[in-house]
Write a structure and sequence with these properties.
Layout lengths: L3 H31 L2 H8 L3 H5 L5 H24 L10 H15 L4 H16 L4 H25 L2 E3 L3 H22 L8 H13 L1 E3 L1
Antiparallel strand pairs: 1-2
Protein name: AcrR family transcriptional regulator
InterPro entries: Homeodomain-like_sf (IPR009057), HTH-type_TetR-like_transc_reg (IPR050109), HTH_TetR (IPR001647), Tet_transcr_reg_TetR-rel_C_sf (IPR036271)
Pfam families: TetR_N
């Protein structure tokens, strides 16, 4: 039977998650600069007291949201790769598209997701007093993504023709560019991955070779 302490911890975690969920929506609508603690609390249905019992400041919340979004995204990438990667009935390019579709099917790559991630970048550049913190988080994100790419390339029995760190930057840039193009060219909320399905396999085939 759960103890009082366990119930309290679960309530606190649930409150924290609701605040982060509310912040995600508010930041997409108003931007990090425009969003207020009051607006986030109202969206989550909590008081300022509940906010400040979980976060020291709005910046503290934003950094926690960054970490949560990063962990969720990388977890979904890894989950997509954990399916049976090799299939004798597929070319390597077809396998890459299948994995991409598996990831996109589990990851909410919608307009809100895109806007929030762009806000992270803008905020880190604009707020010089916390720029080092953001730089460290982006470096960590790239390193974790590089580890996933290394495993995926090895599973496909291929090898990269350039350092995995460079490949990571290229892939992240391609993904961001595809999302930016998709949302600039349409008012739809959902991400149309047509461009990404064409570019990603061609790119990976061009910068790798069979073992």
């Amino acid at each position: 039977m759960p103890t009082t302490e366990m119930k309290s911890t679960r309530r606190r975690e649930a409150t924290r998650e609701r605040l982060l969920d509310a912040a995600r929506d508010v930041l997409a609508e108003s931007g990090i600069q425009g969003a207020t603690v009051e607006e986030i609390c109202e969206r989550a249905g909590f008081t300022r007291g509940a906010f400040y019992s979980n976060f020291e400041s709005k910046d503290d919340l934003v950094l926690d949201l960054f970490r949560r979004e990063k962990d969720l995204m990388l977890g979904r990438v890894q989950a997509a790769l954990d399916i049976e990667l090799l299939s004798p009935a597929e070319t390597d390019a077809e396998t890459i598209v299948r994995v991409l579709d598996q990831f996109l099917g589990s990851q909410p790559t919608d307009r809100t997701w895109f806007l929030v991630h762009q806000e992270f970048v803008i905020h880190g550049v604009r707020q010089r007093e916390i720029a080092d913190v953001y730089q460290e988080l982006w470096t960590q994100t790239r390193a974790e993504f590089a580890t996933i790419i290394t495993g995926a390339v090895e599973a496909l029995q291929r090898k990269l023709a350039l350092p995995v760190e460079q490949m990571t930057l290229i892939l992240m840039g391609v993904f961001d560019e595809a999302m930016r193009n998709a949302f600039l060219s349409t008012s739809a909320d959902a991400f149309d991955a047509t461009e990404l399905r064409e570019m990603l396999p061609a790119l990976l085939m061009a910068v790798s070779e069979p073992l």
